[in-house]
Write a structure and sequence with these properties.
Layout lengths: L2 H27 L4 H11 L5 H13 L5 H29 L3 E2 L2 E2 L1 H11 L6 H29 L4 H31 L8 H28 L4 H28 L2 H4 L5 H5 L4 H8 L3 H10 L7 H13 L2 H20 L6 H15 L4
Antiparallel strand pairs: 1-2
Cofactor: Mg(2+)
Family: Belongs to the FPP/GGPP synthase family.
Keywords: Magnesium, Metal-binding, Transferase
């Protein structure tokens, strides 16, 4: 077992132990709160742990000592990133009206089912959404508790302050990036066609790319005492790879196999996501084609045949081919940033492997 594999396994243990430690706190308030830990445990048992892995890789790439407290700190911080990500997913599924997550019912759907099973009064759907908002808020708070726990382990307080500042910035960027995503779904008719790709790229950068790859790398590197040059190399790798990651996600959101992705095929089309893929598709259409496409996009009632037709229109427009070229280009730029970088050789090999996993995945 490699060190990185062992540390990711420790992240799983850290998350499990943390949730177990919060269970009696909730139970002391009310027995009915067990749903929060049960749903959290289910949600956090899945996923690919990419953010944790990048955090660990950033630390391995830059750390010069393997002190036990420093290693424990990076594991705890990686766990915090996974809990933060789960909070974002809970809220994202409410915003997007997504019914499934990782092949399971989304949190708001599970809370709605609880309402029905217990024969509560009022709207089950309203109960589900309200409860899931609070669930996401609770996970956000728990992620911050884990960050504090990680930073308390560091004897170098400058590193602790720099790491906290990076986490705070990441949290702000992904939150406003989510707002920009909502904005584009609603404001797109007022946006000139010449601006749609740039604005979609802005969403992609702040909602996903920086928080999925660049920030976790930087967080691990800051714990490891990275130099300014090392941090810059990791950021130069992380941002383009994060963009490639999100573009791959956009492609899977339209063309992915539901049995593999855990979400219904064409979900992004029903939600009306104004992604870079959609912006590229509209750019390659005539005015009449664009009007037909815009009229169908974002309709929750789209059946499978309508989804297939939209997929066809996107492919015929050349957008899918263009997105694949961009994924390859972003990935190449990311890997170029690792060449001659002052980083640990084994960690660089791990980053190269992660780059392939991120961009060649099918889910």
């Amino acid at each position: 077992m490699t060190q990185s594999t062992r540390l990711v396994s420790q992240v799983d243990t850290e998350i499990a132990d943390f949730l177990a430690s919060r269970e009696p706190i909730l139970a002391a308030v009310a027995d009915e709160l067990s749903a929060f830990t049960d749903f959290s445990r289910d949600l956090l048992s899945g996923g690919k742990r990419f953010r944790a892995r990048f955090c660990i890789a950033g630390w391995q790439a830059t750390s010069t000592h393997a002190e036990a407290d420093e290693q424990r700190a990076v594991v705890t911080l990686a766990a915090a990133l996974e809990v933060f990500h789960s909070a974002a997913l809970v809220h994202d599924d409410i915003i997007d009206n997504s019914d499934t997550r990782r092949g399971m019912p989304a949190a708001h759907i599970r809370f709605a089912a609880l309402h029905r099973d217990e024969h509560f009064v009022g709207s089950a759907d309203a109960f589900g959404r309200a409860s899931a908002i609070l669930h996401g808020d609770l996970l956000l708070g728990w992620s911050d508790e884990l960050v504090d726990g990680a930073l308390d382990l560091l004897t170098d307080r400058d590193r602790a302050r720099s790491t906290r500042a990076e986490f705070n910035r990441m949290r702000t960027e992904v939150t406003v990036g989510q707002y920009l995503d909502i904005l584009e779904e609603n404001a797109w008719p007022t946006v000139p066609d010449t601006e749609t790709i740039r604005r979609a790229e802005r969403v992609m950068t702040f909602k996903s790319a920086k928080y999925s790859v660049e920030a976790p790398l930087a967080l691990g590197a800051l714990i490891g005492g990275a130099s300014a040059a090392q941090l810059e190399s990791l950021r130069s790798f992380g941002l383009p790879l994060g963009l490639a990651f999100q573009l791959r996600d956009d492609v899977l959101g339209v063309f992915g196999d539901a049995a593999v992705t855990g979400k219904p095929a064409g979900d992004d089309l029903r939600e009306g996501k104004r992604t870079v893929l959609v912006a590229l598709a509209r750019q390659g259409m005539s005015d009449s084609q664009r009007e037909t496409f815009d009229d169908a996009l974002g309709r929750p009632e789209l059946d499978d045949a309508a989804v297939v037709e939209l997929q066809r229109q996107i492919e015929v427009s050349g957008a899918l081919e263009s997105a694949e070229r961009s994924i390859s280009s972003y990935t190449a730029n990311a890997l170029d940033a690792l060449r001659d970088a002052d980083l640990d050789v084994d960690a660089v090999a791990e980053l190269e492997q992660l780059a392939r996993l991120l961009t060649e995945r099918s889910s």
